[in-house]
């Protein structure tokens, strides 16, 4: 169990990561400089650098913490829920949050996309695996008969379905819940049947 000093350091790291993401969402990557992030967190840039070498590290830390929360939800979900149902439930929860909540689905999507733009291709690939590995592992424990490859496909498709709803739901649509259900129903029941229905 972490001692008080370690907990304080972890809380400070989280505070800096949240400040970084709040700025990223509010003013974009250009405005979310280390200096601006430190100012928003009420510390010097030197103090910020005691915790993160680069601002991208703060964005990555933020996503790691969100994935850790998803891992907890996977582990605590009722036994009868399939991995896809658990993912649907997680997305429904974060999609229902207000856009001014830094942990809202739209904001998580912005952070993920910005990390993709700010990092090199090589770094992007290793960071994505590093961030998502705990979630893959949690789903694997929940569905031990599934191969590692299938677990990755299920998780990746669930994430893609959630992102697709955020990007493509019609303008003025009330909320994403119906679209999330439609996207996850499509994943759950397969696309072949839907393609057949669409061409009949």
Task: Tell me what the structure shows.
The protein has 200 residues and is mainly α. Helix content is 78%, strand content 0%. The protein contains ten helices and no strands. Helix 4 crosses helix 6 and helix 4 runs parallel beside helix 7 (121-142). The radius of gyration is 18 Å and the shape is globular. The model has no long low-confidence stretch (mean pLDDT 87). This is TetR/AcrR family transcriptional regulator. InterPro entries: Homeodomain-like_sf (IPR009057), HTH-type_TetR-like_transc_reg (IPR050109), HTH_TetR (IPR001647). Residues 33-52 bind DNA.
Q: What integer is the average pLDDT?
A: 87
User: Alpha-carbon distance between the termini?
Assistant: 60 Å
Strand content is under 5%
Outline, from the CA principal axes? globular
What is the assembly state of the chains in this entry? single chain
Main sheet summary: none
How many separate helices?
10
What is the total number of structural domains?
A: 1
Count every beta strand, where a strand is a DSSP E run of 2 or more residues: 0
SS-derived structural category = mainly alpha
As residue ranges, the low-confidence spans are none
Along the chain, the helix and strand elements come as: HHHHHHHHHH
CATH-derived architecture: Orthogonal Bundle
CATH topology (level 3) name: Tetracycline Repressor, domain 2
